[in-house]
Amino acid sequence: MLDQKTIEKYINSLGVVSKEEISDEGIILFKTDDKLVGVIELGSPLRLSLRCDPELAILLREKYETIMPGHKLNHKFWNTIVLTGQIDWPEIQGFIRLSYDLAHDQL
User: Fold this and answer.
1) Closest Cα partner for 33 from 89, 99, 107, 93?
2) Interior CA angle at 12 toward 51 and 7, to 5°?
3) Residues whose CB is less than 8 angstroms from the CB of residue 4 and which lie 6 or more positions away in sequence, other chains included
4) Helix %, strand %, coil % of the chain (to 5)
5) Per-residue DSSP letters for 64-93?
6) Residue 16 maps to which CATH number?
7) What pLDDT does residue 25 have?
8) Residue 97 — pLDDT band, cuts 50, 70, 90?
9) Is the pLDDT of residue 7 over 70?
10) Total structural domains in the chain?
11) Closest to 37 in 3D by CA, of 20, 56, 17, 57
């Protein structure tokens, strides 16, 4: 299973990303140029929320039981992935990269 450090390391490798911890809620926010890229919800298993193209978001939710509409986020543009091991790391890296790119497109 993926861990928080692996996800953080990959997100940080994409460019300038800031990290904000909301420790009392067990949430970590990742932003680029003040645009939210991703959210990690600590727990077992971890949950990773990422931006997504609206049409792709629906397809991914249909394909994977561990992908659902963004938890506490706009369901049209965000997916939450429960990191149980159902989805391979390279595919999750692609989802993270897409989220980062979509955040940059909003600049």
Assistant:
1) 107
2) 65
3) 28, 40, 42, 46
4) 35, 30, 35
5) -TTEEEPTTS-TTTEEEEE-SSSS-HHHHH
6) 3.90.1150.30
7) 87
8) very high
9) yes
10) 1
11) 17
Measured CA to CA, the distance from residue 81 to residue 104 in angstroms comes to 21
Query: What token pair was written down for 98?
Result: 């897409």
User: What are the tokens at 32?
Assistant: 């680029």
pLDDT in tens, 37-92: 999 999 999 999 999 999 999 999 999 999 999 989 999 999 999 999 999 999 99
Q: At residue 100, what is the residue type?
A: Y
- The alpha carbon of 15 is separated from its chain's Cα centroid by a whole number of angstroms, namely 16
What does the block give as tokens for 18?
A: 């800031």
Q: Which of 70, 71, 75, 77 is nearest to 52 (CA)?
A: 77
Query: How far is the C-alpha of 22 from the C-alpha of 106, rounded, in Å?
Result: 24
Taking 90 as the threshold, does the pLDDT of residue 1 lie above it? no
Can you give the residue range of the structural domain that contains 24? Answer: 4-105
